Amino acid sequence: MGKNHINIIELSDEKIHENEAAIRIGKAAAGKGVYLLGPVKEKTQLKAKHKGIIKINLEGLNAINNVDKVTFATRHNNILVEKDEVIGATRIIP
């Protein structure tokens, strides 16, 4: 794999793993027509449960993206999405 180092971290009670953080953010953002996939490598995808119009809370999205080492990307607001289409993703940078 070309890896020369192994990093070991000890999490305090106040810190959580990147994958857990991605799941929590995804769940908090998902509406009733959305389900989560992942996490895979600190990334969780949000997908549409059915065909419909996506509604994005832009104020909430901006607030999440202002958190250091957190990225939350979505499709554009008020567009038609198909069932099982990826509509967003969270990524936590370790």
From TrEMBL:
It comes from the Bacteria. This is Uncharacterized protein.
